[in-house]
């Protein structure tokens, strides 16, 4: 037979717990993050300068850069703290220089994202101390806020292994152009010009074309490394690429590696020990779109060709990295850009510009240029 005193105590405990839970649920009621119209306007400008190259002007994303507007984005961040979103963007963006903006700028960027996803501005500014959520899912006003998703421990970035490469010479020749700066640390007087015949059929130790040949075979005839000795390979040297999304396809000529970096940087390295020989850095106008990733380069005769993020085509001196010519293909302020590099055929540089997703009469196109002067010969 049950004890009425025990039952009364259990009922009392149950009621107390229910009251506590109700109070907790009420305390956890979600609040939509607030921001001002001024923050959203500032964020729109910052987004165009720092984010649009990868995430696009309409925030729909491209390749590995996810969309920052629409159902996928809002669903992913529903009922999650806006402070978590702010922290994530500050730790990882922009890719070439994470945490390089001030907190007020990151707050403005997130305000722009919220505004672009139909959250109206208010009177309270957005800050890193906010306890509100980025988005409230439909009918979830009484649902508890999701806990932050903590990052995997580790150190971001790719730095050279200590003592794994030769010291960079300290004396450099500086070449300046309207939109770039080149540091030539060690000239390459022994560099042999690359002929059209060598592009078609390169020497076994050279890689003078994207995927090595115009047939894109991606095959090397070298036989020194084989299935028997590959297990004995060990690290020779390490070169730290520039920070950011890295998808390079280097070229090799006479033991010199020509490699593109994120941020529109091209470097020539000694393939034997990793010593930097010269470095070209694109300089972007203040307030305009900043550099994104480069995938490939092209070479012919004594020039290296690079298609830049700001919709230019540039020829560099293979021996020094100095600019030989620089031509504008399209107006980058209209959304045109380059990611994949050009190819060379019969003394012509052929380049396909981005913009195929633009629903305009003139969207993406291919141009052919004189390889010696950069003069545009045709467009289709």
Task: Please tell me about this protein's structure.
- The chain is of the alpha+beta class and 380 residues long.
- Helices cover 21% and strands 18% of the residues.
- It contains seven helices and 14 strands.
- The strands form three sheets. Strands 1-2-6-5-4-3 form a six-stranded antiparallel sheet, with no helix packed on it.
- α2 (37-50) crosses α6.
- The longest helix has 24 residues, at 4-27.
- It is elongated, with a radius of gyration of 27 Å.
- Residues 4-27 and 152-169 have low confidence and may be disordered.
Short note summarizing the structure:
The chain is of the alpha+beta class and 380 residues long.
Low-confidence stretches: 4-27, 152-169
Question: Could you tell me the mean pLDDT?
Answer: 84
Shape annotation: elongated
Our Rg estimate from Cα atoms comes to 27 Å
Largest sheet: 6 strands, antiparallel
- Strand residue percentage: 15-25%
The CATH architecture designation of the largest domain is Beta Barrel
In total, how many domains does the architecture comprise? 2
Number of helical segments with 4 or more residues:
7
CATH topology of the largest domain: Lipocalin
The SSE order reads: HHHHHHEEHEEEEEEEEEEEE
Strands of the widest sheet, in order across it, are 1-2-6-5-4-3
Helix proportion of residues, in percent?
10-25%
Distance between the termini: 93 Å
